[in-house]
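G., the chain you wanted modeled:
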Amino acid sequence: SLRKPKLFWVSAAAPLASVISSTLFVFIFKAQNHGIQI
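Predicted structure as tokens:
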């Protein structure tokens, strides 16, 4: 993975990005259900 740092970062950031996106999706979904304007 030292020869391909980009591949390493992609493999490391993929699960993190999925967690962040799911968290933001739930946050926005709950905010809309509570009538909060975004």
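The chain has one domain: 1-38.

Shout if anything looks off.
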